[in-house]
Amino acid sequence: MKYKRLVLLCLIMISLLPIISACGKEPEKTVETEFLMDTLMELTAYGPNGEKAIDAAMGRIKKIDDLMSVSSETGDVYKVNKSAGQNPVKVSDETMYVVQTAQHYSQLSDGAFDITVGPLVNLWGIGKKEEVPSQTAIDGAKALIDYRKLQIDVSSGTIGLPERNMSIDLGAIAKGYAGDEAARIFKEYGVKSGIISLGGNVVVVGARPDGNPWRVGIQNPFKPTGNYVAVVEETDKTVVTSGTYERYFIKDGKRYHHILDPSTGYPADNGLASVSIISDKSIDADALSTTVFLLGPEKGMELVEELSDVECIMITNDKKITVSSGLKDNINITDEEFIYEEGR
Ligand code: AMP
Ligand code: MG
């Protein structure tokens, strides 16, 4: 009798073994990388549907890139810019949404962020050209920039630019939207844990497979990619950074980068090296990282403090780190070369 019970117990234990060992194991991990939207995209998903989710998300990012990049001839932004000075053109719902959001941040910053910055972006061609344009050319481009002239008609779904050579540029915001869409698709496929990394834009989906928050590194603006100055712990959030190190050239010892101040016509020169924004939606974080960078340390931090559920990390050229009030207890400065300054 005793012997039978022992055998039964052993059988139960053996049949439970796979379940017991599976409990302690990390779920399956899928990682894919692709070069899209001028940047390296790395998508990581945990769980059985990871590969399908990543494929669908990559497909969606490609579609967004096609619709919203200035150079894609089949896209909406190209069409809008080509029709400048003529009739407004019909755009897709997603382009309308991104344009409206970009217009919101243009208004919020009084044109420091300006969706019609296209002529200036094109003139400098940062990342393609390495030349400081003439003052005449800069003045010419500046004169074409004015978000208040953009014609947005939601009922007919059309967007128009009233003057020839005006153009819109969604380079500061489209990647943020792509991040939100990738996260939405991950969730649609049942992915509860993952990381969407689109260049300097990170979206963390859920928590880490072990239930702890994700640890997101804040790039050292003066060192190659992957060198971090600080770490934040986040669950279901986005961390987006705009920095002078992303796209630039150096001429006569001066750095010319890709975040252009429409009031001067030159790259923003306010002592900031980078701005990281943490928020719920990546489209907002992307628009805000650029906006806050352009507004500068004081006005930029003021704006962040006014907004709910938005936090910020600023790094200056003289290696000072300032964070918004809601982040003080959730940041770990990991590089001793940087000085942590108490903000407000
Ligand atoms: P980000 O890296 O998100 O800060 O975006 C930088 C990109 O935004 C540039 O490469 C341009 O395409 C675009 N951009 C540059 N200056 C401005 C500006 N003042 N307002 C809106 N977009 C801008
Ligand atoms: Mg941005």
Index terms:
single chain; 344 residues; alpha+beta; T-fold; 2 domains; nine-stranded mixed β-sheet; three-stranded antiparallel β-sheet; 9 helices; 17 strands; binds adenosine monophosphate; binds magnesium ion
Describe what you observe in this structure:
About 4% of the residues have low confidence. Strand 8 and strand 9 form a beta hairpin. The chain has a 9-stranded mixed sheet. Strands 3-5-4 form a 3-stranded antiparallel sheet, covered by helices on one side. A 3-stranded antiparallel sheet has the order 8-9-16, with no helix packed on it. The chain starts with a helix and ends with a strand. It is α+β, with helices and mostly antiparallel strands and 344 residues long. The relative contact order is 0.12. The radius of gyration is 23 Å and the shape is globular. It is built from 9 helices and 17 strands. The chain has 2 domains: 224 residues, Roll (T-fold), CATH 3.10.520.10; 85 residues, ApbE-like superfamily (T-fold), CATH 1.10.3980.10. Bound molecules: adenosine monophosphate and magnesium ion. Adenosine monophosphate binds next to helix 8.
